[in-house]
Amino acid sequence: MRIGYFCLYTPIELLYALSLKPVRLIPSQKFDLTSKYFRYDACPFLKNLFSNLANKVWEIDGIFLLSLCDGQRRLGEILKREINYLKIYEIYFPRTYNLTAFQFYYEEILDFIKLWERDLKLINKRLKEEIEILNKKKRRLLKIVDSLNFLKKAELIKEFWEKGDIPETKFLESSVSEKEKVLFLGSYYTPLDWPIAKMIEKYFTIAADSFCTVSRGIDFYSPISDLKEYLFFYFSKIPCILRRPNRIFYHYIRRKITKYKINKIILYTLKFCDAFSFEKESLKTYLKRPTLLIESDYSFDTTLQIETRIGALYES
C-alpha cells in the first residue's frame, strides 16, 4: 500500500517496517480548485496540495496526515469529505515538548500500528532494519548534494523522498561560487518556489537552507532503537518553528550560520503562514544578520516584486 505524507515528523521508517510504501507529497504542479473548500487566507501549500490530490497526481492509496497546525487539521476534514478514493490516517502531533504530550502521541501511533500488525517484537526488529537502511541512504545523499547548488540539491532530495532511493547522479558537477553567502529558510519549499531560488542565485550563493523539504530532511538520523525511543527522537530532536518552545529550531539555524560563514539571511514564507509570520522579528533579532523577509502565494505578481527586493538586499 502506497501512503502519501508531507510532514517531516512522519515516522517513515515505521511505515516501511509495516510493509507500507511512503511517498512524500511535494507538489510540482499548480491547480486552482480550492476556492469552494478553503478560505482565501488559507495556506497556499495546503490548498495546492489538495488540488494535486484531487487531480490524482500521485499514485497513492492513503495519506498519513500529521495535524501540526490549524491548516493541516482543516485539510484532513476536507480530504475525508471530498476525496473518497484515499484512506486518511490522521495523527495529532503535539506542538509542545513535554512527556504528557509525547505519551499521547505514542499511544496514537500504537493504535495506528495495530491496524497493520499486533506483534510489537516483530515491529521492533523490522524497525531497526529500516532505520539502518534509511540512515545509510541519507548519509550517502548528503555527500552527493553537499557541493551542489541549492536548486540541484532541492531537486535530488525531492526525488529521493518520492522514490525512496538515491537518484541517478552520473554527471553532476560541484558548484563553487565567489558570491556572498546567504542562509535561505522558511515555509514548505516546493518546485513552485524554485523561481525564487533562481532569482537569489543571480546575486548570492545559497550556502545553506533549513527547509523541511530540502536539507532538514537529511540532516537528522534516527537512532537504531526500539519503537518508543525512536518515536521520542522524532518528537523531541527534529527542529520545527511550529514547536513550542522552538529554541531547537533557532539553535539549528545558528549552527548553519556558523558552519557556512553566512553573511545574510533570506526568510521566505508563504502568505498566511502564521508560524513564520509571527517569528519574523524574533528571527531577525536572534540571527543578528541583515535579513530579507519575503512572502509568496505562487503568483506571478509576487514573484516580480520579490526579485526587486532581492536586488536591494544585494546592494545593501
Automatic annotation (TrEMBL):
Residues 117-144 form a coiled coil. Gene3D superfamilies: 3.40.50.11890, 3.40.50.11900. Keywords: Coiled coil. Signal peptide: none annotated. PANTHER family: 2-HYDROXYGLUTARYL-COA DEHYDRATASE, D-COMPONENT-RELATED, DEHYDRATASE SUBUNIT MJ0007-RELATED. Belongs to the FldB/FldC dehydratase alpha/beta subunit family. This is 2-hydroxyacyl-CoA dehydratase.
